[in-house]
Design goal:
The protein is α/β, with parallel strands linked by helices. Helix content is 40%, strand content 17%. The chain has one domain (3-316): TIM Barrel. The strands form two sheets. Strands 1-2-5-6-7-8-9-10 form an eight-stranded parallel β-barrel, surrounded by five helices. The longest helix has 21 residues, at 272-292.
């Protein structure tokens, strides 16, 4: 089932959540436990993140510097397929520009189609650590809109090799990211919204937002999107704070703001457990207000933790 079909099927807000692939060397136990902890709340789809290889530089005996490619997490395609076939829940693997050529992206899309996966989330992805400016791979897509265009071409049966035989159209539902507080690299929200509209015009079927902690930010974002003619579903993404250090880490990494009331509550916490409770209560309050306004879905970023997500889902679904 495609995400857009799941959103319109029940006439109510649906639940979805996002998972990180396990670290290299780990088995599937933890990720399956996370999913099974949330099955009773009828999640309509599960996002699986993709992580590019990382580059490490190590000094060898004699002073030479060795460049090493490090893959820290197993392949998203295999994990997504295992989850969808084990639980029968649609999965949404992330497809990113960073670290992949257009040819590699095409092969991934072919594999996903063969495995019966109908949904993807198209993202530019992060640059390499230490690089101030994102640089695509030689022969790779530079922006999310380029990725959307490539996927949309595949939906029409247009492959990179124009002489390819048996060029079957690959029918995918394509999601893209929206940034209620603007992307960190965008000069302003208006410019960022122009880029978002272009992604939709290029073939994106829905939008899922980056995390936010003030619902008014989301409401204003949706209104601005509609004023610009963006009509696709916009799914709010929320993240329950689970650690004390996230008070400073999340705004720094994701270029987001925390409401004064939430900051005050977290400043008053003395342990991670107290921060987890405060974060869970805040997320429940957020979710209730969002659902009351009729949002099409509620997407929760788990970061591999499910107990607090379970508390939220139990309170609202």
């Amino acid at each position: 089932m495609k995400v857009t079909e799941a959103l319109g099927q029940s006439g109510r807000t649906v639940l979805s959540f996002e998972l990180l692939p396990p670290l290299k060397g780990s088995d599937s136990t933890r990720i399956y436990r996370t999913i099974e902890n949330l099955l009773e709340f009828d999640p309509k789809f599960i996002n699986i993140t993709t992580h590019r290889d990382e580059i490490e530089f190590r000094e060898k005996p004699g002073g030479q510097i060795e460049r090493r490619v490090v893959r820290k997490r197993p392949g998203t395609v295999a994990i997504a397929a295992a989850i969808q076939h084990r639980y029968g829940i649609p999965v949404v693997p992330h497809i990113v520009c960073g670290g992949f050529t257009r040819s590699e992206t095409e092969h991934v899309m072919i594999d996903l189609h063969f495995l019966g996966i109908e949904n993807v989330l198209a993202l530019r992805g992060d640059g390499l650590k230490g690089e101030a400016v994102f640089r695509p791979e030689p022969g790779g897509n530079a922006h999310a809109i380029d990725l959307v265009r490539q996927i949309n071409n595949l939906k029409k049966g247009i492959y990179l090799d124009p002489e390819l035989k048996n060029s079957t159209p690959l029918d995918f539902c394509v999601g893209v990211a929206g940034y209620p507080e603007k992307h960190a690299e965008a000069p302003n929200i208006e410019t960022d919204l122009c880029y978002l509209r272009q992604k939709v015009e290029a073939g994106a079927d829905y939008i899922v937002t980056q995390m936010f902690f003030d619902n008014q930010v989301y409401f204003d974002f949706v209104n601005k999107c509609r004023e610009m003619g963006i009509t696709v579903p916009i799914i709010p993404g929320i993240k329950p704070i689970a650690l004390m250090n996230q008070l400073t880490v999340l705004p720094k990494i994701f270029s987001i703001s925390l409401p004064p009331a939430l900051s005050k509550a977290l400043h008053g916490c003395k342990t991670d457990e107290e921060a987890r409770r405060a974060g869970t209560e805040w997320a429940i309050s957020q979710a209730r207000e969002l659902i009351a306004t009729g949002v099409p879905g509620l997407h929760i970023y788990t970061y591999g933790l499910s107990d607090n997500v379970r508390e939220i889902a139990k309170a609202i679904f």
